[in-house]
Design a protein that fits this description.
The structure is a single chain. The chain is an alpha/beta fold. Helices cover 34% and strands 22% of the residues. It has 12 helices and 17 strands. It has an 8-stranded parallel sheet. Helix 4 packs parallel to helix 5. The longest helix is centred in the middle third of the chain and has 17 residues. The radius of gyration is 21 Å and the shape is globular. The mean pLDDT is 94.
Length: 399
């Protein structure tokens, strides 16, 4: 059965008002605003701005406490330490609400804020086995009509440091995880090559992509980036590899960051940053000038790493712009691109955007254009997935 709806008086990013015709979940045509045909099913958007669905490119559905009891933050005892934070996380999760409940809370927060696509990292290692993945797979299936979710098998306790993890990562892909992850090959597992052997070995064998957490700073982080790029090129995986955080890119001199950016671009390796408040982070504008795909995500929301996070990628674009010193309209639009089109490219999402032939995944909000939307972060939003309203004014729409 064919379903057709015309979304009238939609404001494009250039300010023009158009009608968007949607058929069976796909944008069929974008036309000048006209008079509705007799019997036509239509929705009047009243001149509000229409943007493509926001891309939540890095989140942790299994470890958030959003909607649960408040968990006071525990600082590390001697500066930022990944192992200590992982230990705090395990302690907190043992006392938390069921994972499925917490994951649904966080997922609905993100959908209500306009996320139509998501990549979530899920713990898969010797400490938890495959239990977390089993839970999140079920949640993903439950929300499949509201949001598209990629899952990364994430070895939070390390690969070489956690017995049995290489086999579990492989099994996780067989169960339905979409990518294989990694974590600080040098500082956590203390063996860059053996760590990457496992990650890229699973990826090559299973034909999936890679998304590696990399917190290591300075030239150590740059060295790891170089090794990841070398593996990517050797295996012909350009466009299928991402490095999340890559703090080292923001902790070296500009010339080295620029050279590394050129290498990332040649290798087709994307960089994810959430512009965290207490760390150096990759220079977004510099990397984009070099041709690197830079995308973003909320990362942690109300978890053991920090108490912040609102699940709003438009807000994240504002944070990125603020921390990067983006003041001009062009740069504010670049921050918006990081959470939309660049995110779609990094995640390999096809048929994305507001154009004929694209999936009708879009958000409607009160703003005259993109730069003002990034600065003001208007909260009143209608979220459409495949042309169907799934959230409005911060609430999930039933049905």
């Amino acid at each position: 059965m064919t379903t057709e709806t015309t979304f009238r008086n939609a404001r494009q990013t250039d300010g023009h008002l158009v009608d968007i015709r949607v058929s069976n979940g796909t944008i069929r045509a974008i036309e000048s605003t006209g008079v509705p045909a007799v019997g036509e099913t239509s929705v009047d958007l009243l001149g509000r701005l229409v943007i493509p669905g926001l891309v939540e490119g890095h989140i942790h559905l299994d470890t958030s406490f959003y909607g649960d009891e408040w968990k006071p933050h525990r600082p590390c005892t001697n500066g930022f330490d990944v192992r200590e934070r992982v230990a705090f996380q395990a302690d907190n999760m043992a006392k938390a609400a069921p994972m499925g409940v917490r994951a649904r809370n966080q997922l609905e927060l993100c959908i209500a804020n306009g996320a139509t696509h998501m990549r979530s990292h899920v713990m898969v290692d010797g400490s938890v086995g495959l239990k977390s993945l089993e839970t999140i797979l079920a949640v993903r299936d439950e929300y499949r009509d509201r949001i598209d979710i990629q899952l990364v098998a994430f070895p939070q306790s390390g690969i070489l440091s956690s017995p049995g993890t290489p086999e579990l990562l492989d099994e996780a892909i067989g169960m339905g995880a979409d990518l294989v992850g990694g974590l600080d090959p040098a500082s956590f597992d203390r063996d860059v090559e053996r760590h990457l052997d496992v990650v890229f070995g699973v990826a090559e064998r299973r034909g999936v992509g890679v998304d590696i957490h990399l917190h290591d700073m300075g030239t150590l982080g740059i060295f790891e980036i170089e090794q990841i790029c070398a593996r990517t090129q050797a295996l012909g995986m350009n466009g299928k590899v991402a490095i999340s955080h890559a703090y080292g890119l923001g902790d070296v001199v500009e010339d080295l960051a620029k050279r590394t950016g050129a290498l990332l671009a040649r290798s087709g390796v994307a960089i994810m940053t959430n512009a965290p408040g207490d760390h150096a982070f990759p220079p977004v504008a510099l990397l984009r000038r070099e041709g690197v795909t830079v995308f973003s995500g909320s990362d942690n929301i109300r978890d053991s790493w920090w108490p912040f996070g609102d699940g709003d990628m438009l807000s994240r674009a504002s944070i990125i712009a603020y921390r990067s010193g983006f003041y001009t309209d062009d740069l504010l639009s670049a921050a918006f691109d990081v959470v939309t089109a660049a995110g779609a490219k990094a995640l390999g999402i096809e048929n994305y955007g507001i154009r004929p032939g694209a999936r009708a995944d879009f958000v409607v909000l009160d703003a005259p254009h993109i730069p003002q939307a990034v600065v003001e972060v208007p909260k009143a939003r209608d979220v459409y997935k495949g042309g169907r309203l799934v959230a409005s004014n911060g609430k999930i729409v039933s049905g």
